[in-house]
Every structure is written in structure tokens, then in C-alpha cells.
Amino acid sequence: MPMPLMPVHSEREDDDGAVSSDQRKRMDEYIDTLDIHIARREFDAATSLVLQLKQQAGATAGLQDVRQAADSHTADLARLILADLLIPCSSRKQVTQNVGLLHRLGWDKEAKGAFLAARSATIKNRTRQLKLEGNTQLYIRELAIVYFRLIRNTCEWYSELFADPTMISALIAWVRQEMAGYAVIFRRHVFHEMQRFQVIASCLNHTLAEVDILGHAGLDLKFMLDQEFFPDLTSCIRSYESRCLALLIKVASEDSLQVASKVSTENYPSAAAIFGPHIPI
To answer: Are 45 and 37 in contact (CB under 8 A)?
Structure first.
């Protein structure tokens, strides 16, 4: 814990209002102590001390340089805490502590951005750990679990860490961004690979199952899912229709169109027993 600051106004000031040499020496010692806390990454102690310095310097004439030094140290300290906050896969306790310190320092906006960036990095790291191994349905199922459960956790953490209602728009924009990221991967492995409709349906069902879990938690993303996938699904159906039509035209063009007079019973044993090798028509 940082040692408490002695009130400067208890010391005698010079007649012209300047701070005495003893006061100046004490402020320099506090700044040195602050440097030590920052160098040792003792962020909690450093935050308490820098806030005390700013308060003391602001309340005492002649300490403008101390206030400037405190502001400079505040920026240095905040940047170090932000760097910690940007580390992906940090524990909830670590994230809460770092956001709390940045809030005390008045860096709420920067804390919000760093928190959401770290959560995006966490999703990317977890996604890279997934293996396709030729099974598209299993891959998409695991991908949906990673994306949508981390989105849900992020929303829960965000509501606890940033109570200011004006910051909710940043969370909504982040959710849209991550939904778009999920859609890019889904599109690449499902729609662009021209998977069978059974596979497409299975992948969509896995996605909807995770989205439903979010809905139970109060976060309905189905409309975003519709916006992302409806154009691709429509395009896929049209493409399938075009392929079927092209195949039908090819078969028809190669058919001699001769009228059949009999039908083979080779694959129908019961009919062969009655009619022989062929059924006349």
C-alpha cells in the first residue's frame, strides 16, 4: 500500500505563495515512490498514489509541475494496465481488476475498447484450435459453441464492468462484428464448398441451437443470423436449381427418345419369377 500523503497546506509557504523546499522534497519523494510502484507493476498501489498526488497538487498553489508529472505518470500507468487488459484468455478476476483501475484513472473509454478487443482475440485463439478433419458438421458445431458462448460470456461481463448506459452501443457493434466473423467462416466451409443440403441444414441447426441458448439468456441474435445467411441460402438454392436443370438438359439431349417396349426385371426378383427377364409394355 502506498504511504499516505501529508497535506501540503500544513507546511509553511513562502511569503510569495511558493511551495517551501520541504514540501517540494516531499512531492519529489512521492513521485519517486510512484515510479517504483509502476516499475514493479504494483498497479493498485500506483493508482492510489497517483490519484492522491493529483488531488494534492490541484489543491495547492505552486504545484503545477507536480500535477503535470502526475498526469504523465497516469498516462504511463494506464497504458501498462491496458496492455494487461489486451491479453486474450485472461481470467475474469484479472479483467475486473484492470477495468476497475482504469475506471479510477478516468480511462473508461480506453478500457472498453481494450476489453472488447481482448475478447475478439480470445474468440480467434479458440477458433484456431478447432480442427476440420473432413467433418464439416462437427467443425461447425464446435465453431458455434466457441463463438456464441464466448459472446454470451462477454455480454455478461460487459454489463458488470461498464454500467454506463451510453456504452451499450459499443457492445452491440462488437456483437455484430463477431456475428459477421462467424458468418465468414460458416460461408467458406458450408456455402462456398457447395455442401449437400443435408449438411447445410445440419450446420444451420447447430448454429440455431447455440443462438437459442443466447435467447434464453436475454440476447436474441436470430435476426442477425437471418441477415447474414438468407442471401447465401437463396444463392445456394438457385445454384442447385441451375445445376439440376443443366443436368436434365444434358440427359435429355443424349437420350435417343426411343419408345420402350419392355422393362427389365433384373433388380426385381419377385417380378422376374412371374414375368421372366422382361415385362412387356
So the answer is: yes
DSSP string of 89-158, one letter each residue: T--HHHHHHHHHHHHHHT-HHHHHHHHHHHHHHHHHHHHHT---TT-HHHHHHHHHHHHHHHHHHHHHHH
Average pLDDT over residues 60-72: 82
- Using left for φ > 0, alpha for ψ between -120 and 50, and beta otherwise, residue 130 falls in beta
* Higher pLDDT among residues 54 and 59, named by residue: 54
Largest Cα span, the chain:
128
Q: Classify residue 105 as exposed, middle or buried by CB count within 10 Å of its CB (0-12, 13-18, 19+).
A: buried
Closest of 112, 88, 89 to residue 99, by C-alpha: 112
Give the amino acid at 99.
V
Closest to 226 measured CA to CA, from 238, 239, 241, 211: 211
* Cα 201 off chain centre by: 26
pLDDT tens-place string over residues 114-162? 999 999 999 999 999 999 888 999 999 999 999 999 999 999 999 999 9
Please indicate whether residue 126 or residue 236 has the higher confidence score (pLDDT).
126
pTM: 0.77
Q: Are 189 and 204 in contact (CB under 8 A)?
A: no
